[in-house]
Amino acid sequence: MASPSPRRLRPLPDLHALVVTCALALALAAGWAQSAPTTVPSQLVDSFRLDARGRAAASLAADGRRDDARLQLERASQGPVAALAGSPATEPLRSAFERLRNAIDDGDVRAARTAADRLSSAVNGLAGRGRDDVGAFRSALVALVREAGREGLEAADQPAGTATATEPGAYASALAAVAVDQAQRSSLGGTVRDALLTLGSALGAEAVSAATVRSATDNALAALGAPPGAADTARLLQTIEVDLDRAVARYRAGDTAGTGEALIDAYLENFEDLEPPLAAAAPDLERRLEHTLRDQLRALVAQGVPTDRFAAAVQSARADLERARKVLE
């Protein structure tokens, strides 16, 4: 009887080839992660603000108020457009905004509406990634509601139909509309959406009292889980100082996203609550601080200025905050 033939063993895999294959797979995964678009909270807030400016501009142009529409575009260029510059993820937003600007300059109302709709679609695409982080998304809506309430109060304090009422009024109404649209696309409950709809109705009314705006804003903030109104002045000023410290530290570390988030917190989460009493006591100081914290510092970050220049601008803001402290004491 013939002996069985020996079992042939499979050759071991080439260890070197296996290592190379794994390394390539890891590199591809890392490359995909780096190229995958991400949305940071500051981008989210600025994209919403840009959407609101675009909607307000298109609506005013449709009413034949081209100068008022251009003012909305100017405000957008000074604020969110400058803040969003340099990010590939926001290029579709900036492109749609330029089409909107050109259409309004040409007096083409239909093209302006189409461009505004494209801008909203681009914002929705960016926000779709941001909605995955429910906490950050809710914070972005809180920032929108605070700004809408502040702009609505500014409009309510002016005679209806005047230029000083039209700019903040149109923007406030559009901010509320953006907040409603985003809330309806999110997993937030009906209570939030109802409160935002009420706010939108109040801000979109022909003539509305400051008390109505304040009440609707506070209700919307409460639905979003945010404190309704201005809190202790000293605490707010101290928090702004901490946010500015964080912004400078992040900028020195080369973290522009972290810098933007710190500046968003300084302005939208804290300084806005100080604006009404400061505007009443020292309007020029209030306007200067608003411009610095809302627009100037973030524009410097977008431009990538040297660290010393950014730190000097922050120090100038600190000096104005100290003046505000003395005014509000």
Q: Which sequence of SSEs, written as H and E, runs from N to C?
A: HHHHHHHHHHHHH
- Percentage beta strand: under 5%
- Radius of gyration using CA atoms only: 25 Å
What is the count of DSSP helices, taking H or I runs of 4+ residues?
13
Helix content: over 70%
Walk me through this protein's architecture.
This protein is mainly α and 329 residues long. The protein folds into two domains: 41-223, no CATH class; 233-328, Up-down Bundle (Four Helix Bundle (Hemerythrin (Met), subunit A)). Helix content is 80%, strand content 0%. The chain has 13 helices and no strands. The protein has helices spanning 15-35, 41-62, 66-84, 91-106, 109-130, 134-156, 163-185, 190-204, 210-223, 233-252, 256-281, 283-303, 307-328. Helix 7 (163-185) runs antiparallel to helix 8. The longest helix has 26 residues, at 256-281. The radius of gyration is 25 Å and the shape is globular. The N and C termini lie far apart (109 Å).
Please write out the topology:
Layout: H1 15-35, H2 41-62, H3 66-84, H4 91-106, H5 109-130, H6 134-156, H7 163-185, H8 190-204, H9 210-223, H10 233-252, H11 256-281, H12 283-303, H13 307-328
